[in-house]
Amino acid sequence: MPDTRAAADGRDINAAEDGHNPANLEVLTIGRVSVDLYPQQSGVPLSRVESFAKSVGGSPTNVAVACARLGRRAAVVTRVGDDGFGEYIRNELAEVFGVESRYVSTDPELRTALAFCALDPPSDPPLLFYREPRGPEMNLLPGDIPDIAATVPVLWTTGSRFAQEPSRSTVMEVLKHRNRRPHTVLDLDYRPSFWSSPEEAGQYIGLAVDFATVAVGNRTECEIAVGTANPHAAADRLLERGVSLAIVKQGEAGVLVATPESRAEVPPIAVEVVCGLGAGDAFGGSLADGLLADLDPVAIVTRANAAGAIVAGRLACSHAMPTPSEIDEILARAK
Q1: Exposed, middle or buried by CB within 10 Å (0-12, 13-18, 19+), for 172?
Q2: Fold of 13-270
Q3: Within the chain, what is the greatest distance between any pair of CA atoms?
Q4: 168: number of CA atoms within 13 Å, CB side?
Q5: Which of 21, 180, 243, 250 is the most buried (most CB within 10 A)?
Q6: Which of 283, 309, 272 is nearest to 214 (CA)?
Q7: What is the mean pLDDT of the chain?
Q8: d(CA 304, CA 16)
Q9: 192-198 contacts, C-beta under 8 A, 24 or more apart
Q10: Residue 100 has what DSSP assignment?
Q11: Is the pLDDT of residue 20 over 70?
C-alpha cells in the first residue's frame, strides 16, 4: 500500500489514490512493462542461478511507481498479454503501488514480456529479455492513448518507444499533439537489442527530441540521440533543439544539468551497489516529482541522485522505490 508518511513539502503520500480520477493525474508514462525475475543468488551467471523472485519492471512503469511512492498521482500506458503475468502486473500496480492501471490494455496475440536479470556484476546487471516476437507494448495504437496525454502536467516516454511500429507512430503523434507542453519528458533510453542498428535508433530517438521539453540520458544515449558523448556538447545540442532542461548522466562523475540560462555539475552519492537496474527509474520518478514541485534544476537533480542511490542499494526496482523521507534522510547524511 502507499506509504502513510507525509512528504517534505506537506503533500499526503496517500494522495496517489486520487489518481483513479483521470482528470487528477499528475504524471502519465508511456512504454514498456515486464515481469522482472531477479536471481536470489548474487554474483553468479544465469546458468548457476537456482531461484528467482518476480517484480513489476519496465522503465516507464517503474517511473510511474516511483512517482506514486513520492505522493504523485500517476498512471502508465502500456500493454500486457492475456495471461497470468499480465494479471499480476495490473494487480501490483493498482493494489500495491497505487498506480492507475486502467490504461494497461491487453494485447490479443502477444504474451506479457519477461526480463531475467543476472547480478553479475551487481553494478551493471545484464538483462535477458523474453519478448518474442516482440513486447506487446510495441503494438500500442492511438486508441490506447487517453485524452489526458495532451494536458497531463508531466508526460514521460522513452526512446525505446520508437523502435517499432505501430508504437513509433502512435507515440510520435502524442508528442506532436502535445506540442511541447511543459513538462514533456523524453528519457533517451537506448537499448541495443530493440533496434536493428545504432543509426536507426539515432534517427528516431533524435526526431523525438524535437518534441521534448526535458531530455535525460547517459553519455551513450546522448551520442545516439544527438551525435556526441561529450556531456557539455550533448547538452548544447539538446538545448539547440529546443529542450529547456537537458540532463546528462556521467556515472561516477555525477550529472550535468543544463538550461539555456545556466548549467551545473551535481555530484553523485556514494552507495554500496546491490543492483544497478532501478536507479535510473528512481531518478526519473524523483525528476518528475521535482518538476511538479517547481524546484530549481540543481535541486531537482540533487534529489533525483539521492533517489537513484537508494535504489542502487536495494534489490529489485519497483519495490525499492524510495519515499520522500528516505530521500531527505540520505541527503542529510551526505552533507
Answers
A1: middle
A2: UDP-N-acetylmuramoyl-L-alanine:D-glutamate ligase (3.40.1190)
A3: 53
A4: 13
A5: 243
A6: 283
A7: 91
A8: 19
A9: 193/129, 194/160, 194/163, 194/164, 195/163, 198/224
A10: B
A11: no
Is it the case that residue 13 has pLDDT exceeding 70? Answer: no
| 150, pLDDT greater than 80 | yes
Encoded amino acid at 300, one letter: I
> 247: part of which helix (H) or strand (E)?
strand 245-249
Would you state the cell numbers that stand for residue 231, as one nine-digit string? Answer: 556531456
**Are the C-beta atoms of residues 92 and 53 closer than 8 Å to each other?**
no
Q: Is the pLDDT of residue 11 over 80?
A: no
> What average pLDDT does range 138-161 have in this prediction?
97
State the cell numbers at 157.
516516454
Q: Which amino acid appears at position 329 of this protein?
A: E
Burial classification of residue 176, based on how many CB atoms lie within 10 Å of its CB (0-12 exposed, 13-18 middle, 19 or more buried)? exposed
What would the pLDDT profile of 267-301 be if each residue is shown by its tens digit? 999 888 887 778 999 999 999 999 999 999 999 99
CA–centroid distance for 203 within its chain:
21
